[in-house]
Each structure stands twice: as C-alpha cells, then as structure tokens.
C-alpha cells in the first residue's frame, strides 16, 4: 500500500464547455491568493502575489522551504489522522472550525453573508466548504476544487464473524474499489470507521472509532506450501484467502467466562471479542453498539522516506493529498479578515466520498450535493431579489479544478508509461487529458491552468 507519489495531479473540469476567454474565471482560483485580478486573460499587467508553493523548485528561498516542510508535516498529520473517509472528513471539519468556518446544517435555513466562511458535511464522509467574497454580487461565480476522501480498502461485511475456521476467529471482509490486494497481506492491520450507539435515553448517535493497535493480520501462505508462487504469481481468491485473522479461539470453561461469552454472543453477527474491543475503545457497553461500518486499516504511520527525505511513504495519498491541499488552500487563502475584501467570487472546496467505486452515491460527486449547495448559496446571498437566470449565470462564471493523483513513472517499470507523457516525480503538477473524455480537461481549461502555473512559478 505504500506509495511514492509526491505530487497531486490536477485535472480540469469547467462547468462551461464554451468558456468565454473574456471572463475572469481562473485568476483568483483558490489554490492561489491574488492581490489583483486580471480582467482578461489577455491582460499584460497581471500583478499576483505567489502563495506558498507546494513544489520544491530549486530556486525556493529558505523561508519558503520551511513553509514547505511545515506543509508536508501537516499533510503527514492529516494522513495519520485519516484512516478512513469518515476520519478524513472529521479532521477536515476540525480544521475548518479551528479556522473560524461556520458549520451549516442542511436541514436549517441558511443566512449567508458576503465575507462569511461556511461548510457542511454529508454522511460524515463528504464535505463542502466555501468562503464568500465581500464584493460578491449575484451572478458572480464559484472557484472550486474537488477531491475525494475515500481510498481502496477492505471493508467489514455486515456479518463480520466468519465461521470458516474452528480454531481461529476470522473476520469477513469485502474489497472496496480497485486495490492491489496482495499488499494487504502480512501487514499490521486494525479497524476504524463509524458506529451507531444507543444512548441511555434510548436515542441514538453516530460516533467514529479507531482501534489504534494491530488487532488483525492476513498471513501469506508459507513458501513451502506454495512452491510456484514466484513463477506463477500470487493470485489470492478474494473470497476465501483474504480474511483477516482476529484471534485464536480460546477454550476457557470457567463459569464466569461462559456467562460473559453467552451475553456477548447476543451480537451473533460479530465475534464477541471484536465487539468487546470496540466497546472498550468507545467506552460504552457492548449492547449499546447497534450498528457498525468499519474499514480494515493499516496501522503503519505515514512518514517521510528516501535518502533525502524526499518521498512521502503512505497509503491513502490518493486522494487525501489533494483533499489536504484543497482544504489548506481554502483555509490559508482566507486566513485574515481582509483576505476576502476584494474578492468577487465564492471560493469553494468539495471533498466527496465513493470516487473509488464510481461516485454514484448520495455522498459521491455524482450526487447533486454541490449544485444544491450552490443553488442555496446563490439564493441566500441574493436575499429576496433573484434576477433572471442568476444561478445559470453563476455556473457559467464558475470554474472547478478536479484534483486527484497521477502515477509517477515507476523506475522498475518505466516501459509501462507512455513515451511522451511520463509524470516524473518532483517535475511538477500533472494535467490529465483523455480523448474519450474520461477527464473533462479541454484545450481551454488546460491552457488556463498552465497560465496560472506560469504566474506562480509552478512547473507542470
Ligand atoms: Zn483518486
């Protein structure tokens, strides 16, 4: 699962395929802070202040190098906090609240103001945050970055207790997304996710849980029993060979243990031991846990590596790296009260769930979450007056960067990469193109993004 990709790739979507070059859609993109916005891309007098850079260009002055180190350490913290999509969202929420963003409730009426900073979450696994320019007028656009909170992983099945072995407690799992499943073998694994608890007044609440010790392992079959594995390849059956081992079955016949086991076995879908571990972590009774939604997680912390500490060794970089960069860009770009003073647009970040399985869920990018939010924001800011086509005009004025990861050239498999399009580490951002429109990048959007890169000395 360890990945050695150091740069988020950027691919571009525009809400408006016929983007008008006379608009000013990209100049104040929230990835960068601008002191003066060009009225047109043809302007020759663009004066922009470079924001702290995510790239390690050789010319980086010393103070910006220390900023980069701080950003990388913060990213490592974010990765280590975010074992699951739920935790990634919770950590983003914590950072936004600390930065003064106001948590909105989608069930309540919104009363938004220019200069305000807001966010909301859905399903505890997706999030939309935005900051409204103080110069905002109805019809002004959104400058948005979208990324995703989920990564391929193993998820516990609804009935987690496997009856497969008479000697061991095994846990039923299913694969989520397109993962390299052999990398999950022989690792120190645990569980994390969301549980629903019954409170003493018989109401319910959902809570996150993370068991911060290696309670699970998927052992590889010994070489003595699989002599041809190095010639034929390791091809585990995902239904039968990928079950994590939780424990050995204990033969304790004491009456106290029998009584305890009988009580715990009322949760027949799960091994009592697993429920006991969760209840200890949550500081509640086992019977208070009425529902669980857990991922199998790697307990090995993300860290810097390489001879010069130039790599980030971590799982979940796709796409927590982009989620973190987007979040940090929004927070940093409206850090002080004057940061939105001359801004006309609404700066927005959307972190979606379920990208790894096609985005077609209520909390995925395929859901209308973002458009619904945009519609509500426009309506709320318009107060009582909404002119003709306000929302549609807003969309036409908007620009969205879809930020995700690209695979750097693998030094041992360099022939697997297309000869003329080889993303090399530390050479800058990547713009993804696809003639069959798997990516929404067009000649215009990639041109606009490259222009911003030029202005801010960001290689691509
Ligand atoms: Zn991704």
Explain what this protein looks like in three dimensions:
The protein has 460 residues and is α+β, with helices and mostly antiparallel strands. The chain has 2 domains: 10-146 and 315-455, 3-Layer(aba) Sandwich (Aminopeptidase); 153-298, Aminopeptidase i, Domain 2, CATH 2.30.250.10. It is 24% helix and 21% strand. It is built from 9 helices and 15 strands. It has a 7-stranded mixed β-sheet, with helices on both faces. A 6-stranded antiparallel β-sheet has the order 9-8-11-6-7-10, sandwiched between helices. A two-stranded antiparallel ribbon has the order 12-13. A hairpin with a 5-residue loop joins strand 12 (303-305) and strand 13. The longest helix is centred in the N-terminal third of the chain and has 20 residues, at 62-81.
């Amino acid at each position: 699962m360890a990945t050695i990709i150091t740069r988020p790739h950027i691919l571009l979507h525009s809400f408006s395929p016929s983007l008008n070059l006379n608009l000013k859609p990209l100049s104040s993109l929230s990835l960068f802070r601008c002191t003066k916005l060009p009225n047109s891309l043809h302007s020759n007098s663009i004066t922009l202040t470079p924001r702290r850079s995510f790239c390690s260009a050789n010319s980086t002055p010393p103070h910006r190098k220390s900023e980069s180190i701080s950003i990388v350490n913060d990213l490592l913290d974010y990765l280590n906090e975010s074992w699951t999509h739920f935790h990634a969202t919770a950590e983003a929420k914590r950072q936004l609240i600390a930065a003064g963003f106001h948590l909105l409730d989608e069930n309540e009426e919104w009363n938004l103001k220019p200069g305000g900073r807001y966010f909301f979450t859905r399903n505890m696994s997706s999030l939309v945050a935005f900051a409204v320019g103080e110069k905002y007028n109805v019809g002004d656009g959104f400058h948005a970055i979208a990324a995703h909170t989920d990564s391929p992983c193993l998820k516990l099945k609804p009935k987690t207790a496997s009856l497969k072995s008479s000697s061991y407690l095994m846990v039923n799992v299913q694969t989520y997304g397109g993962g390299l499943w052999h990398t999950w073998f022989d690792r120190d694994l645990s569980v994390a996710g969301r549980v629903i608890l019954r409170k003493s007044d018989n109401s319910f609440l959902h809570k996150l849980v993370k068991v911060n010790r290696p309670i699970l392992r998927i052992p590889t079959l010994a070489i003595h029993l699989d002599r041809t594995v190095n010639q034929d390849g390791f091809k585990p059956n995902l239904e039968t060979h990928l079950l994590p081992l939780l424990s050995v079955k204990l033969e304790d016949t004491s009456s106290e243990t029998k009584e305890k086991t009988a009580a715990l076995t009322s949760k027949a879908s799960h091994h009592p031991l697993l429920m006991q571990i969760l209840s200890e972590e949550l500081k509640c009774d086992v019977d208070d846990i009425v529902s669980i939604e857990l991922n199998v997680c790697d307990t090995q912390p993300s860290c810097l590596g390489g001879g010069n500490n130039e790599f980030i060794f971590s799982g979940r970089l796709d796409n927590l790296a982009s989620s973190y960069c987007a979040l940090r860009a929004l927070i940093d770009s409206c850090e002080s009260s004057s940061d939105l003073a001359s801004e006309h647009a609404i700066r927005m970040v959307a972190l979606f769930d379920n990208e790894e399985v096609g985005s077609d869920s209520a909390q995925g990018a395929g859901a209308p979450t973002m458009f619904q939010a945009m519609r509500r924001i426009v309506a709320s800011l318009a107060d009582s007056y909404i002119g003709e086509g306000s929302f549609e005009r807003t969309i036409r004025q908007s620009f969205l960067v879809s930020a995700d990861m690209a695979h750097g050239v693998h030094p041992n498999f360099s022939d697997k990469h297309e000869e003329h399009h080889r993303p090399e580490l530390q050479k800058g951002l990547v713009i993804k193109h696809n003639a069959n429109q798997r990516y929404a990048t067009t000649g215009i959007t990639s041109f606009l993004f490259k222009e911003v890169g030029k202005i801010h000395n960001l290689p691509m």
